[in-house]
Write a structure and sequence with these properties.
- By secondary structure, the chain is an all-alpha fold.
- The protein is 76% helix and 0% strand.
- It starts with a helix and ends with a helix.
Length: 153
């Protein structure tokens, strides 16, 4: 159904068909676990992938879900930076919560103004992970916005 709708240039219906197919596959995984066809480990890994992808993008790159994921990533990294600010920025810099949120936004968007910088090796490692995570999340967000713009044509 998905292929046919896509070939017929009906992207809205094709995305809906794909979403319904993924939901059915998720229920099929539950059935396979109950019947003993899958080990719990395989079930858990497949279910985790399905649930996380559904949470992040909603099969079809729903803009609101990707934005929600971006805000969650921002909040998690801001909390980590705030709780580890003594180890990241050294103790002589007493950054406020707003400073840390600003620093996280600048890092995740990979703008890197340089007005607040990590001073320790641990801080540089954490900030590097944040920058890579930011690339992924921002890419997902741009893809979702582009999909939405293309569908509106």
């Amino acid at each position: 159904l998905y292929k046919n709708l896509r070939e017929e240039h009906q992207p809205e219906r094709a995305i809906e068909a794909l979403y319904r197919m993924r939901r059915a596959e998720s229920r099929h995984l539950d059935s396979q676990l109950q019947r003993g066809v899958l080990s719990f480990r395989k079930y858990f890994l497949r279910k985790l992938r399905s649930v996380s992808y559904d949470f992040v993008s909603g099969y079809g790159m729903k803009t609101a879900r990707v934005l929600r994921f971006l805000l969650i990533v921002l909040a998690v990294f801001s909390a980590a930076n705030y709780s580890l600010r003594g180890r990241i920025f050294q103790l002589d810099h007493n950054h406020s919560l707003m400073d840390v949120i600003y620093f996280t936004c600048v890092t995740i968007t990979t703008v890197g103004f340089g007005d607040i910088t990590p001073k320790t090796q641990l801080g540089r490692a954490i900030v590097s992970v944040e920058a890579f995570a930011g690339l992924v999340v921002i890419s997902l967000f741009i893809q979702a916005v582009a999909n939405r713009a293309l569908r509106s044509k």
